[in-house]
Amino acid sequence: MKGLMMDTPLLIPSLIGHAARCHAEVEICSLTVEGPMHRYGWGDCYARVQRLANALRSLGIEPGDRIATLAWNGYRHLELYYGVSGMGAVCHTVNPRLFADQIAYILNHAADRFIFVDLSFVALLEGLIDRLTRVEGVIIMTDEAHMPKTSLPNVLCYETLLAAEADHYDWPVLDERSASALCYTSGTTGNPKGTLYSHRSTVLHALGILIGSFALSGDDVVLPVVPLFHVQSWGIPHAAPLVGAKLVFNGPHFDGETLQRLFEEEQVTVSLGVPTIWLGLLDHLRQSGKRIDSLRMLISGGAAPPLSMVEAIERDYGVPINHGWGMTETSPVAAAGINPRRLASLAPDDRIKAKLKQGQALYGVDMKIVDDDGNRLPHDGKAAGELLVRGPWVTSGYYNDPEANADAFDAEGWFRTGDVASIEPDHHILITDRSKDLIKSGGEWISSIDLENTAMGNPDVAEAAAIAMPHPKWGERPLLVVVPRDGATPDKEGILAYLEDKIAKWWLPDDVVFTREIPHTATGKISKLELRRIYKDYVLPTAERAP
Ligand code: AMP
After folding, report:
1. Burial, 477: exposed, middle or buried (Cβ in 10 Å; 0-12, 13-18, 19+)?
2. Model pTM?
3. 186: Cβ below 6 Å to ligand 1?
4. Using an 8 Å Cβ cutoff, are 157 and 55 in contact?
5. What distance lies between CA 143 and its chain's CA centroid?
6. What CA–CA distance (Å, rounded) separates 360 from 298?
7. Are 183 and 202 in contact, with CB atoms under 8 Å apart?
8. What contacts 141, CB < 8 A, 6 or more positions away?
9. For residue 303, pLDDT beyond 90
């Protein structure tokens, strides 16, 4: 028997339509590339979103067409999220920090018809445009006064485009399973792969994070440092309008000084970003003596945070860290936060250590771990194996990529994350490594994450990364690459002495090398791929001496 309830599809325009009705005056403020802070409310935002949808129709955009963005976080980018998806096209956010070759590959693979570009990336696009096979035109996200001279063909100005249109649009009643947005993973191996989100997955993900530990409320002021080009800014642009939260966008500025200033001036209560961002913020706070007292939580995800970072933010600045895990392929949030009942039962030190876990599975996300032969491992918090997930906001296949899809799923249709994890009986997870970042010494795994995060607890260390080096006796042994903190001059002996009583003896790196900079991926994570390339000819002293 079928239920007798209305079959209203879950569509993206309903999110902002709700905000325009119920929270019209709540602000969205954006630091702009042009300079000044831009402010308006959800109501004005919705009117411009409808103008944009009309403009896209005038350009001849059809449902399912891909429209690319190359832009920082800001109000125009937010309008594209809603205008493009809402009228039935696919909002393809491209990470401008990728290598030019990868960007060209992604734009061609997605067959984007138009590209919306921030002023900052016009030169980047000029260098690529000859290689793009399907692009019909470029819209520069600024007003006439700031339009640059450019060699790009078929260029339009965003504000001029919107000015010519009406601010009412009748949203099509789409199938909720229609594609809404596209995001390519930064591609640690091979070509980047596209995750194609749907209206349904996006709305459910927004609801999912709101009932989890990332929950926002109507009196929150949220600053997502995580870019709109990186997995839909972790769902914030879709979740904030549901509760009427105020949004603050940091535009092209990611430095600790700007973030602290925005926190203070806008009285930000929640901010989200990768650990590299929070390490930069901490550095600035220590140097300037400034505080971040308006915050009620800092959300950290995308990479494992060092204990020293969590300790400093919680103890020295009194701001609770909320740690989450996810992937481009999981929309991205799949696990977040430590269950509050568990946290309340712990002593303060243990509470901070518990935050190193990646969080408890969100409603809607199933998780399992398997051994090398695909056999399920127990959820006892001890056994570690490859983590697989499934759920309504987990990918069911990469966009137009049969090769990548061939081994992305197991026989039961679960998505293989490539992360190695243990799962506790109540589904808190601990990621111990990326399967390919593990260091296998004498048949035993060494967690590069643990090693580098322990090293980062040393006050002389600004950043550390551990990679596997070939070793004739052990197969692989760890090399630790260290960036000293400003003004510090640590040496190998000092680093090893610091690590000695904190990790198993056989985990101690065989060598420590110092560098001014560790390479990062386009999403701010340590690039193990690039580090391995840099140190490919390096030979461990222990390997030279080995029998
Ligand atoms: P991306 O698709 O670029 O967001 O990268 C997803 C990958 O980042 C995951 O598969 C993990 O390897 C890593 N990752 C994400 N969140 C965390 C976290 N909280 N702790 C450790 N690794 C993480």
Report:
1. buried
2. 0.88
3. yes
4. no
5. 29
6. 17
7. no
8. 71, 74, 76, 77, 116, 117, 118, 119, 158
9. no
